[in-house]
TrEMBL record:
SUPFAM superfamilies: cAMP-binding domain-like, PP2C-like, Protein kinase-like (PK-like)
Compartments reported by the entry: Membrane
Reactions this protein catalyses: O-phospho-L-threonyl-[protein] + H2O = L-threonyl-[protein] + phosphate; O-phospho-L-seryl-[protein] + H2O = L-seryl-[protein] + phosphate
Cofactor(s) it depends on: Mg(2+); Mn(2+)
Database matches in SMART domains: cNMP, PP2Cc, S_TKc
Protein name: protein-serine/threonine phosphatase
Residue ranges of every copy of the Cyclic nucleotide-binding domain listed in the record: 492-606, 623-736
Native species: Saprolegnia parasitica (strain CBS 223.65)
Keyword entries, A-Z: ATP-binding, Hydrolase, Kinase, Magnesium, Manganese, Metal-binding, Nucleotide-binding, Protein phosphatase, Serine/threonine-protein kinase, Transferase
Membrane found in the keyword field: no
Main location group: membrane
Domain (Protein kinase): residue spans on this chain: 748-1031
EC numbers, comma separated: 3.1.3.16
């Protein structure tokens, strides 16, 4: 197809070689390297040798001709430096094809991103010119040929062997066609041309950077408006997380090529924190396509002229900290395009290390005009009062196509970071994980219910998509075997599959420590686990906190670890579970060797999911829109691959066909209805939706066609009945829309009922604020009464808006409302619904239509009589069944979360710890430590059955007075939970056989062996837990009808009276006196 300039042995006359060369596909020869003395940069954290090994360049510049011009060109591509991923591959790819097609030449740079970005970039590098050559050969006009080449490459990448659902590549290319060039741009890489321009007569001409492409990012209003039409949200990460108000004035002045924040506007799903792309067009990025991110290039055609001096095509690694003019100012100093390319890459590398601790991949192609007709420099345009009709006539060297793009968008360039700042200042970006994990691993649905939250005040970044290859640390087989033996008995690793354990070992990093080195410092945030291979280490604990960081202030030695050939102590296990300040310091007392792994890597390996390509295809099927991400993963696991050869009958009219099919590749024709099903089409929907499996038509494969298939029974075993899923989905959407419309029409301080209207109350002003029942750092629960109806007490939960923003609770609060809507009305007594919501200028208020008098833990009544245990256990079972029927994981069954109302009923008040998981799992560590289930610790993820583990622990505490894990330190407690056996439970004599039996059955370590598992699958109120012998005497109908007195009724009634008499009402105010200083737009969701 063409010749490549990048062959190390190539001279001016270039022999044919492979079509293109990427940064991962060639070796640099010593002759091609500049000497270390000639380098323009400081090597920073890398040595000269390291940089040479990361840099790809030809031995010399090469030459080609186009039209009446002769050009010399060269490229340099340098792999990025990532401290946490030293072996991360270069995700830039490029191609230089001087003899491309019928006298044309083609040059392109492709900047990959995401976990498979290097594969995406290399795929596009090969496919775009290949498809372009085919289109040109078929006589297609150049512009059309270029457009279709990019679009078709994008379509093909979706069926490639790697996953492009959250990965892709930008593409910037120049096609030389005689004396014209055609610049195609997809994304935010860039092409510029240097033109010689005189500012006025008598002054030396200046080289000025002129854009040949405009970055396609949300900085551009036209691109912003385009993707918004698909429902996309445009925000920076700080805006998404509530640190900045919502606005569109990014940068110092919109259009300035300056950006000090390093936090560009990104594209987000309307109902989830993904994909977070900072560009509006790309090849790949299948998930982003529904948000308007597509592969259609913007094309600029320019006629070349004598005033043009050189072209630069580069990835955004160059332009992150350099303006286009700065690049021109560097290149113009050199006569050799190879030296110029090196200088640009080196300067970009320098700038990255001034403002970051890492560098991006950096690729630059410089193309010099070596032989061209001479012409006078262009003079700047002067607006004349007597403008003639010819004043708008284009020059022969002007833009002749795409001019409107460049003119309209000149003020919307993506800002360049780091200009006009103190370069001596230490700059380090706030580390933020973009929410791509919402697609791959989250249990959140993909519809309007997508704002489900996990632990509201502790958003985790540990579940982010993880590139195992990029984080793998090279090890000898001896090291791998040794590590395997070291970790296999540790409670955090012993339950992992062999594949996951191998992955964990692969990313472990070896660290050499010196005597006296502080490995862990008490009070620091812990995010790393250590395994000692050799050396001695003291554990030291301060009795009181001190700000003095000297080692002698670390406290006395409380333990010493010694690593030997047969003993390999570990420390920092809790850091792998969740972020928590270190409880002790660990100091090396000899030289030693440690292996370490960060929580982010460990947690990411635990939650990695297979079959992402299958899930991506299922997500594109409209029939499956009601399914959540978790359900799609379960369905993917149930589906099989089937291939139909050309002319094979897929199903025949009038015959039974019970398999539902999704086309992966190829085509299937509906013979009867003259219709063709292609990629992502669902073919036999009648197998899932109809009452009969009889095929209404004959389907025929028109070519070799690959499909995913599943029987109806397997589908329903995985995710349930499709018609029921659709009905539930439509009901929720309708409820949500109704509530949203009602919110917009509701004035400030007005109570908006979430269910039936509340008699006698319409606004917050109708309430008299009573005493505080409970409060923590984020909210307060208070008794309220109605004016003129003092005996009718209720509860008001108040959350300062400032706190909701600061603690990132906005999404959790919205998710709580969504779950309450899903649960509906007539809830069991164990669930106290939010009856109405309102807000003032400073606070958010939730109104509960029953009086809450305190947390269960505050009553101090354990152990309870067995009849009381039975009553509350039955009550909570009814509550769990309602939660689980809607796919909601409760995560609140412990005395520190359960509340007691004035009638003595236990109640789950508020759902901020709850999460929608459906039939899937969630990996967030959440809840009271003594109630955490084994599957959370073992890395298998929580499912609905995890709530029954919590119920078992609660019943044991109610019956015995403490949990099975009481009195253990945190690490020993988790070890005990991970390896727990119900046979080890110790019961007092008064505990009956029936109560012992149900507790033991609830505390089975494996969820699928646990009592309650069948209930979460079948959701049958007349089977499972309710049929246990312990509940034989329960009158379920009377319990559901609230006809039975609660054991704590008298105590709770006394507490309510005491609360109401506790303080004068005149001192109580509605709002919590926390000023609100942020924007108001997000309140539309409440």
């Amino acid at each position: 197809m063409g010749n490549c300039c990048s062959n190390a042995s190539a001279a001016t006359a270039i022999p044919p070689v492979r079509p293109s060369v990427s940064a991962s596909a060639a070796k640099e020869t010593p002759a091609s390297r500049r000497s270390s003395e000639g380098r323009r940069y400081s090597t920073g954290p890398l040595t000269v040798k390291d940089l040479d090994m990361r840099t790809l360049a030809p031995p010399r510049a090469n030459v080609f001709t186009s039209g009446s011009y002769t050009f010399s060109y060269a490229f340099v591509s340098q792999r990025g430096y990532y401290p946490d991923a030293l072996h991360k591959p270069n995700q830039d790819a490029f191609t230089c094809l001087p003899t491309f097609h019928e006298g044309k030449s083609f040059f392109g740079v492709f900047d990959g991103h995401g976990s498979t970005g290097e594969h995406c970039a290399q795929f596009a590098r090969d496919k775009v010119p290949e498809l372009l050559a085919q289109n040109l050969k078929n006589g297609m006009p150049v512009s059309n040929a270029l457009t279709l080449a990019h679009i078709d490459a994008n379509n093909l990448i979706h069926s490639a062997s790697f996953d492009d659902s959250m990965s892709g590549t930008t593409a910037i290319s120049i096609l030389f066609d005689g004396n014209e060039i055609h610049v195609s741009n997809v994304g935010d890489s860039r092409a510029i041309i240097a033109q010689e321009v005189s500012s006025s007569e008598g002054e030396a001409p200046q080289l000025v950077a002129k854009p040949l492409s405009i970055d396609q990012t949300p900085f551009r209003k036209d691109e912003r408006d385009r993707v918004k039409k698909t429902g996309a949200r445009i925000m920076t990460v700080d805006q998404l997380e509530g640190y900045e108000p919502i606005h569109e004035n990014w940068g110092l002045t919109l259009g300035d090529e300056i950006d000090e924040s390093g936090d560009p506007p990104r594209i987000w799903h309307p109902h989830g924190d993904y994909p977070g792309t900072a560009f509006t067009r790309s090849i790949g990025d299948q998930v982003s396509e529904e948000l308007g991110v597509f592969a259609e290039p913007e094309i600029v055609t320019k006629s070349l002229g004598a005033h043009d001096r050189f072209l630069v095509v580069a990835s955004d690694g160059v332009f992150e900290f350099l303006t286009s003019q700065a690049v021109v100012n560097i290149v113009k100093l050199y006569k050799d395009p190879l030296e110029a390319s090196r200088a640009v890459v080196e300067e970009a590398y320098n700038r990255w290390l001034q403002f970051e601790v890492r560098t991006d991949d950096i690729t630059c192609i410089c193309i010099f005009f070596d032989d061209a007709p001479m012409a006078a420099p262009i003079m700047p345009a002067v607006v004349s009062r007597e403008a003639s009709a010819t004043s708008t006539k284009v020059h022969r060297n002007s833009i002749i196509a795409g001019r409107e793009v460049l003119l309209a968008m000149e003020d919307s360039l993506r800002p360049v970071r780091g200009l006009g700042v103190d370069t001596n200042k230490s700059w380090r970006s706030r580390q933020t994980i973009i929410g791509a994990d919402a697609v791959h691993i989250s249990m959140l649905p993909d519809d309007d219910e997508a704002s489900r939250a996990s632990l509201p005040s502790s958003p985790t970044s540990d579940d982010a998509p993880f590139d195992l290859t990029a984080h793998t640390v090279a090890k000898s087989e001896e090291d791998k075997d040794a590590l395997w033996n070291m970790v296999q008995h540790n409670f955090l690793f012993s339950h992992l599959t062999d594949d996951k354990l191998n992955d964990v070992i692969a990313v472990m990093d070896k660290e050499t420590v010196l005597a006296g080195q502080v490995v862990i410092r008490q009070g620091d945030d812990g995010d790393k686990f250590y395994l000692a291979e050799a050396g001695k280490f003291d554990v030291r604990v301060q009795s009181t906190e001190t700000n003095d960081g000297d080692d002698h202030e670390l406290g006395p030695v409380v333990h010493t670890y010694s690593a030997t050939a047969s003993t390999h102590p570990t420390f920092g296990e809790l850091a792998l579970m969740y972020s928590k300040p270190r409880a002790a310091s660990v100091v090396a007392t000899s030289n030693g060797t440690l292996w370490s792994i960060r929580r982010s890597a460990f947690r990411s390996i635990l939650v990695r999911r297979p079959l992402r390509n299958v899930v991506a295809r299922l997500r594109a099927v409209s029939l499956l829109k009601p399914l959540t991400s978790a359900q799609l993963h379960l369905l993917a696991e149930a589906m099989k691959t089937v291939v139909f050869e050309k002319d094979a009958i897929v199903c025949k009219e009038g015959h039974v066909h019970d398999k539902w099919l999704v086309v992966v590749s190829g085509n299937i024709a509906d013979v009867k209805n003259d219709r063709v099903f292609s990629t992502h089409a669902s073919v036999t929907d009648f197998a899932l939706t109809g009452t009969s499996s009889m095929s209404p038509t004959t389907l025929l494969a028109t070519e070799t066609t690959e499909c995913l298939c599943v029987t109806r029974s397997a589908f329903e075993a995985a995710v349930g009945n499709l018609e029921a899923l659709v009905a539930t989905y439509q009901t929720r959407i309708a409820r949500k829309h109704e509530l949203s419309a009602a919110k917009k029409a509701t004035p400030l301080r007005t109570l908006l009922p979430l269910g039936a209207p509340i008699e006698g109350i319409s606004t917050l002003d109708d309430l008299i604020v009573g005493p505080t029942v409970f409060h923590d750092a984020s909210c307060a629960f208070r008794i309220v009464t109605t004016k003129g109806m003092d005996e009718n007490a209720r509860t008001l939960r108040s959350i300062p808006k400032q706190v909701a923003c600061d603690r990132r609770q906005k999404q959790a609060l919205a998710a709580e409302q969504d779950m309450l809507l899903a649960l509906g009305e007539n809830l069991p007594l164990a669930i106290t619904p939010v009856a109405a919501i309102s807000h003032t200028a400073t606070d958010l208020h939730a109104f509960f239509d029953r009086p809450i008098v305190g947390l269960l833990e505050e009553f101090g009544i354990f152990p309870l009589a067995e009849s009381s245990v039975r009553y509350y256990a039955a009550q909570l079972v009814l509550g769990l069944q309602r939660f689980h029927a809607e796919g909601i994981l409760c995560r609140s069954l412990d005395p520190t979360n359960l509340m007691v109302d004035a009638h003595g009923q236990l109640s789950i008040v508020g759902l901020r710890q709850s999460k929608y998981v459906g039939a899937g799992r969630t990996f967030t560590i959440c809840g009271n430590p003594e109630y955490i289930s084994p599957e959370q610790i073992n890395g298998h993820g929580q499912c609905l059955a995890s709530d029954y583990w919590s119920l078992g622990v609660l019943l044991y505490e109610m019956a015995v007075g403490h949990t099975p894990f009481d009195g253990l330190d945190e690490l020993d407690m988790y070890r005990s939970i991970a390896s727990f056996s119900p046979d080890t439970l110790v019961f007092p004599e008064h505990v009956s056989t029936g109560l012992r039996s149900i507790i033991e059955a609830l505390l089975r370590t494996k969820p699928n062996e646990r009592l309650g598992w069948a209930d979460t699958i079948e959701l049958d109120e007349d089977a499972g837990v309710m049929n246990e012998a312990f509940f034989e005497s329960v009158n379920w109908a009377a319990l559901k009808a609230n006809e039975l007195p609660a054991p704590l009724e008298d105590i709770a009634g006394v507490k309510l009276r005491d609360l109401l008499a506790s303080a004068p009402a005149s001192k109580r105010t509605l709002d919590l006196a926390v000023p609100y200083t942020r924007e108001m737009d997000w309140m539309a969701d409440f």
